[in-house]
Amino acid sequence: MVAALDSNPAAVLAYSDHDILTASGRPFDPFYKPDFSPERLRGQNYITHFVVARREAVNAVGGFRDGYDGAQDHDLVLRLGEVGPVVHVPGVLYHWRQAPDSVAADENAKPYAFDAGRRAVADHCARVGIDATVLHGSLRGTYTVRRRLSSTPLVSVVIPTRGSSGVVWDKVRYYVVDAVASIEANSTYPSVEYIVVADSVTPPAVLEELARVGGDKLRIVPFDEPFNFSRKCNVGADAASGDALLFLNDDTELIAPDSIGEFVGHLQSTDVGMVGARLLFADGRLQHGGHLYADGPIHSLFGWPGSAVGPQRMCTIPRECSGVTAAAAAMRREVFDAVGRFDEAFPVNFNDVDLCLRVRREGYRIVWTPAAQWYHFESVTRVAGHTQDELDLLLGRWREELNHDVYFNPCLLPGRNDWLPRPMLSGISADVLGGR
User: Fold this and answer.
1) Please, is 279 exposed, middle or buried when counting C-beta atoms within 10 Å of its C-beta (0-12, 13-18, 19+)?
2) Transmembrane residues, as ranges (predicted)?
3) Is pTM, for the whole model, over 0.90?
4) How far is it, in rounded angstroms, from Cα 133 to Cα 142?
5) Is the pLDDT of residue 433 over 50?
6) Same domain, residue pair 107 and 165
């Protein structure tokens, strides 16, 4: 831990992974953490007890404060994260003893600790300019940051389509019509327009029904070129009037009414470049929980039950990811243009991966939030597979980033989406040599 700080002179704090130790001395439930994730830290004290901090930084932020019993560590780490870089040392360097009266043994042992944690997060939000109400989350020890919108800018929902139809839940549907209709019927966000980029093969009946459903919020943009998802998204963005762009696959259906407002709330933070949604298959399984780029790209927790809380509750908390799928993702127009838009050299696949990596290269955070939620009928209207040219282009451009995902712990097995650990040696993966 000290070596990690020595290697990073600007860093104010170092933390490591941990596990739980039973009364009989058996370790279990290791928590392999991401590198510093401020969004996740607002929703959960994932850093917990064992940290090493620079004395001058601790003194500068006022040390431990009275009135936060049980959450002193969370409060201090939030304040330190506001003033300087935080480094993560992968590997289980301490055991959290499961004493009879500890939270490790019983989450209800110290209810006052979670009340203090909520206040610590609320104080932090006020300090960093996030106008929000902070509530207890659905699970003990988690917190919901409900952002207030300073305005409701026009959101342009860009939907590429061929006007395809299919059967979902024993009912024939035109996907793009139902995608728009679900937002019109269920969304609480007041200011949207629909930019539907329609191939020439789109049936006239679909266009007529779209006009009925979308009304004066709808603009249909004809597309007569060979299939290119990236090109269609860029054409849609050119036709859009909104300050925010929501890229949405046509084979989707809105679940959470506040989804678009949730996107806009995160995009109010100028350091957030892109926000992605929780996507479910028609059968309720999880389709997307953020991208993983460690020997990827793959979807995090792909195929898990939609009701699963995930490893260390990660499915219930907004958090930074290295990328999110463009099947349902929002950006400020200025960021989309600044990073170079979708690269049309990726006509079918990896276009969102490439875009996300360019967003992060420019220093923006990418946030995945479970509070924005759609059904995604899994690319039923997209061309299947990818070309070798697309894969070669992606790897040639981003090989290092795809081998080093800062939000995926190197103690975990790469190329998997289930958070299984590597073989361990004395609590530290044999493949992990130091901190990062």
Assistant:
1) buried
2) none
3) yes
4) 14
5) no
6) no
